[in-house]
Amino acid sequence: MYTKRETRFVPVRSPSSPSEHLVWHCACVCPSACAEEPDCGPAGGCGRPVVPGEVGGELGGERCAAARGGALLTSPSGPGYHIMLPFITTYRSVQTTLQTDEVKNVPCGTSGGVMIYIDRIEVVNMLAPFAVFDIVRNYTADYDKTLIFNKIHHELNQFCSAHTLQEVYIELFDQIDENLKQALQKDLNIMAPGLTIQAVRVTKPKIPEAIRRNFELMEAEKTKLLIAAQKQKVVEKEAETERKKAIIEAEKTAQVAKIRFQQKVMEKETEKRISEIEDAAFLAREKARADAEYYTAHKHATSNKLKLTPEYLELKKYQAIAANSKIYFGSSIPSIFMDSSCAFKYPDARTGREISLLSKEAPEPSEKSPMGNKASTG
């Protein structure tokens, strides 16, 4: 089924009376600027008055292709008043602005043998004014049936036969309109220069009900798969976020621990330096004290060496003896005993009890002994 939109074909009306010959067949009115024909006279056409008649085109958007005696005139009439001869001159209005042609219910067989139908294909095209004569002469005023409608069937079947149902219905559906446009324009550039395809719009194909349900189920499964994939991505993103968060927390903890460790190390190093300083100060003090004591002892030793002469020691000895309150003499007493009040004590000194015990056991001293006589000093 073919439908021509936005184009009005003005038929040549048959006159009902002889007086209507001038009304319906002597004027083709295009309400715009006047375009004269070569055979028009000074009065506007063949020496006869111009009588308003049938409207033959829209405002500047059509050309009137006229035929005289069956021969197409070489100059299509533009908008304006024109004269034609009754019964001899006929005309057709040809639109030269954008128009949309529709092709409905186009069958299409895929490479798998499935027959599908495309409900409607719209072809937006425009005919250039300079190409009206050639195209109407070669393809008549219904040129779009030959150049567009029939070519749509051919090109669409060529496309469908080379692709599967999956490709035609889903995968390559968005490319059908562009492929049809390019194929049509390629042929029109050779067959009908001046006819331009502006756009092609294709509706979704109609497929068998069983196959359609399968496609719907397949699309539902694909949707579920996409949802599952999106959920998986969300879970992965959440896990990645948690992992990054844990890494950030661990890095934060590690950095805090590192800072605290460095702080403790610095504190210990400070304490170590303080201890070293204190030890050095203490060592210096002790060394100074030891040096002072050594110097003092050395000086005392030197002075004692000079002071403790045999004569001085002898003097001290007698002074110590003289300081005792009692002195015991005897043959068995190896040395002088001095009590606790003496300044010096000798290793061979005896206590009073020991001396009394020794005096009881000791024999009488001989007369030759220097200490034969026991004497006591008060």
* Domain module tally: 4
How much strand content do the residues show?
15-25%
Shape: rod-shaped
CA radius of gyration is 71 Å
* Class by SSE composition: alpha+beta
Q: Let me know the number of strands.
A: 11
Helix content: 40-55%
By CATH, the topology of the largest domain is Tetrahydropterin Synthase, Chain A
Mean pLDDT: 74
Number of separate helices: 8
Q: Could you tell me how far the N terminus lies from the C terminus, measured between alpha carbons in angstroms?
A: 174 Å
- Which superfamily, in CATH terms, is the homologous superfamily of the largest domain? Band 7 domain
Please tell me the CATH architecture of the largest domain by its name: 2-Layer Sandwich
- Low-confidence runs of at least 5 consecutive residues: 1-59, 340-347, 365-378
Query: Which CATH class of the largest domain is shown?
Result: Alpha Beta
Topology readout:
Layout: E1 2-4, H1 20-25, E2 27-30, E3 54-55, E4 62-68, E5 71-72, E6 80-83, E7 89-95, E8 99-109, E9 115-127, H2 132-139, H3 143-161, H4 165-171, H5 173-191, E10 195-202, E11 205-206, H6 209-307, H7 310-323, H8 352-361
Parallel strand pairs: 2-3
Antiparallel strand pairs: 1-8, 2-6, 4-5, 4-7, 8-9, 9-10, 9-11
Helix pairs in contact: 2-3, 3-5
